[in-house]
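Data card: per-record layout.
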Amino acid sequence: MGTNKRYDVYSAQLAEITKAAERQPRPISLPDEMVRASGRRRDEPQPVPVKAHVPVQVAYTDVQLVDAEAIAWTTGGLVLIRYVPEGGRSPVYVWVAGNFVHRL
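The structure for this 104-residue chain is written out next.
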C-alpha cells in the first residue's frame, strides 16, 4: 500500500532532527577491556572538579576541553569522568587517560 504524500507533514521534520543528531559530537570512551586491564578501580566518595580533554567524534575525531567531575580511577592511570556535553541535558560518563585530566 502506498503513502499519501500530500499529508506527509512529519518526514521533513524528522529528517532534519536526524541530521542534527548526527552532527552532535559523541564522546569516545576507552574500551571496557582496557579499563579492566588497567588495574583495580577506586571510587571517590565525593566527585572531584576537573578539566578534562575528551575525544569526541562527529565526522572526524576531535578533542574538547570540558568541565567535568572525576568520580573513579584505576591504579593503571585511567579516570572515569562525568560531564554534561554542550547543548545536552543528561550527564555522560567517559573513561579517559589520567594525563587528560587536571584538577581545578
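Known properties of this structure: The first strand starts at residue 26 and ends at 27. The radius of gyration is 19 Å.

See the next section for split statistics.
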